[in-house]
Write a structure and sequence with these properties.
By secondary structure, the protein is mainly beta. 1% of the residues lie in helices and 52% in strands. The chain is built from 1 helix and 29 strands. The two termini are 30 Å apart.
């Protein structure tokens, strides 16, 4: 269960939400995606929340590097507006991937946390690779690892892993993709994470390697203690498709004691998750009429089970994202210093919804 800890004064805030339009919606990205230009601004930080300069940021056919403050901007990038994917690379850090919905001819904001790349664990590419980390165990097949030319690599494979539990406080900025996936029926669904792992594989010259997509990788992840009682016996096992930006369900994982285990062929980012239905919320989040609440982490969770979705408002206070369908929701705004500054019940929504959400005067820190 996902709990939001709020100070008492937040419960006393008075706010208004004006629903504008609702229409029926079928969120199916297997249809031709709407491609349009969009712009992106963001902040890249390390695990101590310090800015990372000179990180390479790529989106569509454009790239840039972060400045000394970890900031970047990309303008008029042609993207799939349902799932624009931004990748970030920096020597010494695990590669970052973030997926977000994008306004056509508009702008989006994001923050991404990169984790240090610990390459002290390795195996021979010509042998079975049984690699254990805190919370994660991986077993690779012999001759499964390939180089960028898709040739079998038999040398030493160095492995770096970032294991993210649903209770990690920096999950919103550290996770790969977003909490949306494509299930085995081809439908876009929300994902309730029971744990995810980001894996980077490198050769002896620190050049990226990858599984061949044919042999199986066995993945075992520890189910975090608070989630074991509700963990189902079988669960979706997804990999991040870094082309489409979606988590793709490849197979099922199975509960064994306090772990989930399963076998996949694709990807290097993996997630065990259950699913739920989604609709789109397109909102203006305002401190008052005409005063946007910009660049705030926006968490929208189901009121009953508290499973969340995450996005950021842009500099104009615009929020665009998928949220749980037909359920009462809790919207929470978090400022750049990590302070929860606003909470309000919204929804339920049965289809695409456009809304103005007025939070009232907010006390927002300057980091």
């Amino acid at each position: 269960m996902y709990w939001l800890r709020l100070s008492p004064f937040l419960l006393l805030l008075v706010a208004a939400a004006c629903k504008k339009t609702i229409s029926s919606e079928a969120a199916n990205p297997q249809e031709v995606p709407p491609t349009a230009p969009s712009s992106f601004q963001g902040l890249i930080v390390d695990d101590a929340q310090q800015p990372i300069p000179n990180a390479m940021v790529l989106c569509g056919d454009q790239s840039t590097t972060t400045d000394s403050s970890g900031l970047f901007s990309l303008y008029n990038v042609m993207v799939d507006t349902n799932a624009a994917i931004i990748s970030v690379k920096k020597h010494g850090y695990i590669n970052g991937f973030r997926t977000l919905m994008a306004h056509a001819n508009g702008q989006q904001y994001l923050k991404l946390t990169m984790m240090p790349k610990d390459l002290t664990t390795s195996f021979s590419g010509s042998a079975v690779g049984n690699i254990g980390f805190t919370g994660v165990n991986l077993v690779f097949s012999p001759n499964q690892i390939q180089n960028s030319n898709n040739q079998v690599y038999k040398g030493t494979v160095s492995v770096a892993v970032d294991y993210i539990t649903p209770s990690d406080p920096d999950q919103p900025t550290r996770m790969a993709g977003d909490l949306r996936g494509i299930d085995n029926n081809g439908n876009e669904v929300g994902l309730i994470s029971f744990g995810q792992a980001a894996v980077d594989l490198l050769d002896s010259n620190n050049v990226a390697l990858h599984p061949d997509g044919e042999h199986l990788v066995n993945i075992t992840m520890t189910i975090p203690g608070p989630y074991r009682a509700s963990a189902p016996a079988q669960i979706g096992l997804f990999y991040l498709d870094t082309i489409s930006g979606y988590w793709q369900q490849e197979t099922l994982g199975y509960k064994q004691g306090n772990d989930y285990t399963g076998n996949v062929r694709k990807g290097t980012r993996w997630l065990f998750a259950t699913t739920y239905s989604l609709v789109t919320l397109d909102a203006n989040i305002l401190k008052q009429v005409g005063a946007p609440a910009g660049k705030l982490l926006t968490t929208i969770s189901t009121k009953i089970d508290f499973y969340p979705t995450y996005s950021y408002t842009n500099s104009n206070g615009r929020y665009l994202g998928r949220v749980a369908a037909n359920q009462p929701l809790i919207l929470t705004l978090t400022d750049p210093c990590g302070n929860l500054v606003f909470q309000k019940e919204i929804g339920p929504y049965s289809g695409y919804t456009s809304a103005d959400i007025i939070s009232g005067n907010l006390v927002i820190c300057t980091p």
